[in-house]
Design goal:
mainly alpha
């Protein structure tokens, strides 16, 4: 175990024993006086939770769930667009209107890939969340999406349509980067994976809404000009419009408030949402100590600091954090998932499913499966842990892609219909595994692993990296599928195997730790090993507290 973690455990051992003695004497809970003498640390947090765990069904938590539910609508925007474009790309009215070939070409790739270009450009402005706050960035992003939707829905030519998609994606990024950042910072550590992780599950809700609307419009309006693809485009502004109406009624991120010297407001938010309004709960004092510790001795940020990227690489710790941020951002978009979600209709063509309605129905089924499994995955990340979930899901994805490639090869080389059916089955299995392990963590893990002062800029690198990976996938995808066919899946088999090895040796466990407690983990010589040892210590402390309760 790294020396720093061992030293921390030793220095706090007597204090932790003292807190347990006080709990035993009182017969039940810790008080503010008990926590005042303890230094902020993973051990202290675990000691408090062992006796004073807030009720997750209390009034404050219910308010937090409702608040989070509205923020989740920001996630529908990306899911809506990816499935919308994949679905309308299968509509003859759409392809004929813009003169696009049935099997896709460079123009098809540009229409899809321009969304990633807009994302990368929008990521350059994430720093603004440190200037005027997280909620304002969400508001302006959602407002801009509504404007971009109007342009695309009214497009009369391909350049106008592509331009509207660029604007839409640029402003989607504003909301889509600020929203998970906000949720990570306002959620309690114990349920951060569940609450913040559930955010990205609404990607699939957006997918379901898009594919369902396209299917219904095509079924009933296919003979009415271009209405079967224009109406779904208009529906893209519903969710961001709702967020625009309510977001400014929500509180700011407590960590943003602390960084801007608004300590009492931050304390009120922690009290209301983390401990159900109990201002005497020791977690309030502990978390305020942790947040204040990150800004003590640090000069207040100036305009120059907002543009200063040195914070991302100034120390060994920050460089390790940035490496994890960039790596998972790339993995989340370049693991074979984009090829399947964007080009599922073309893949179905390749194995003999050509009926448009059947393609749309299978797209809807794929999205529903993704949503169900991603919701389960969001909770499992707080139960099983990030590392085990990501390693297990990556292994499952590797196996599925190998079987998809084998099935596609059987169909292409030997005309085997059973092999084609197997390929489709494992496409859906792949989607379920990816949704369980990756979807909840895609915007959350990159935000968790960086420090408070890095977070806004690091979310910019997250979107830049994800956008670059998505651009490569979506632009090269149709060309690769038409040129090398199932060998493209074989490439991702080997790539996903590489990802699994990288995760095993470098990824840090973040489950159940406050964002400030992770600072100590990343300062150690081997953060991965330190995080695993720290989780073992945390489990022992909590289990000890539960055993003491059982004896009372």
């Amino acid at each position: 175990m790294p020396d720093q973690v061992r030293d921390t455990r030793t220095s706090l051992a007597s204090k932790i024993r003292l807190s347990h003695e006080k709990m035993d004497k009182k017969g039940q809970e810790m008080s503010l006086e008990d926590v005042e003498g303890l230094e902020p640390s993973l051990e202290t947090y675990a000691t408090i939770l062992a006796k004073n765990k807030p009720n997750p069904l209390g009034s404050g938590y219910i308010k937090l769930y409702l608040l989070a539910g509205m923020i989740f609508l920001c996630s529908t925007m990306n899911g809506f667009d990816s499935s919308l474009m994949g679905s309308i790309n299968a509509l003859p009215n759409y392809t004929n209107y813009f003169g696009l070939p049935k099997n896709g070409d460079a123009s098809t790739g540009i229409i899809f890939a321009i969304f990633q270009v807009g994302q990368m450009c929008g990521a350059l402005f994430v720093w603004m969340t440190d200037w005027y706050g997280r909620t304002w960035h969400i508001f302006f992003g959602c407002l801009g999406v509504c404007i971009g939707t109007i342009i695309t829905a009214l497009s009369t030519n391909l350049p106008m349509f592509i331009g509207g998609r660029f604007l839409l994606s640029f402003l989607t990024t504003c909301a889509h980067t600020a929203a998970p950042l906000y949720l990570v910072e306002i959620s309690p550590a114990t349920y951060r994976g569940t609450i913040a992780g559930a955010y990205n599950t609404f990607y699939n809700v957006g997918s379901i809404l898009a594919t369902s609307s396209v299917y219904a419009c095509h079924l009933h309006l296919a003979d009415n000009g271009d209405l079967d693809w224009r109406i779904p485009l208009w529906l893209q502004m519903v969710c961001p419009g709702m967020v625009c109406l309510f977001i400014k009624f929500f509180p700011e991120s407590p960590r943003y408030l602390v960084a801007n010297d608004q300590y009492e407001k931050a304390r009120e938010i922690i009290t209301r949402y983390h401990v159900n309004g109990d201002s005497t709960h020791p977690l309030v004092t502990l978390q305020m100590k942790e947040m204040l510790g990150t800004v003590q001795g640090v000069p207040k940020a100036t305009w120059k600091d907002l543009f200063d990227l040195k914070v991302l690489v100034e120390t060994r710790s920050s460089r390790y954090r940035l490496m994890l941020n960039v790596a998972f951002s790339w993995f989340g978009q370049f693991s074979g998932n984009n090829i399947i979600s964007y080009y599922l209709p073309l893949m179905l063509d390749g194995i003999g499913i050509t009926d448009t309605n059947m393609k749309l129905i299978l797209n809807i089924v794929y999205s529903v499966i993704g949503w169900v499994f991603s919701v389960a995955g969001a909770r499992l990340h707080d139960v099983v842990g990030r590392r085990k979930m990501l390693l297990g899901s990556t292994l499952g994805m590797t196996i599925c892609l190998a079987l998809v490639a084998a099935g596609a090869a059987g169909k292409v080389e030997y005309g085997n219909s059973a092999a084609a059916t197997m390929s489709i089955v494992f496409i859906f299995v792949f989607g379920a595994i990816f949704a369980t392990g990756y979807t909840p963590m895609q915007p959350i893990y990159p935000a968790e692993v960086v420090s408070n002062k890095m977070r806004a800029k690091a979310m910019g690198t997250f979107k830049l990296t994800a956008g670059a990976a998505g651009f490569l996938n979506t632009f090269v995808g149709p060309i690769a599928l038409s040129s090398i066919g199932y060998w493209f899946y074989v490439f991702f088999v080997f790539w996903d195997a590489f990802e699994m090895g990288f995760m095993y040796f470098f990824f840090v466990e973040t489950k159940g730790m406050t964002l400030e407690e992770l600072d100590a983990i990343f300062e150690t010589k081997n953060p991965r090993k330190a995080s695993i040892e720290a989780k073992k210590l945390q489990r022992r402390i909590i289990k000890q507290g539960e055993n003491e309760d059982a004896k009372v």
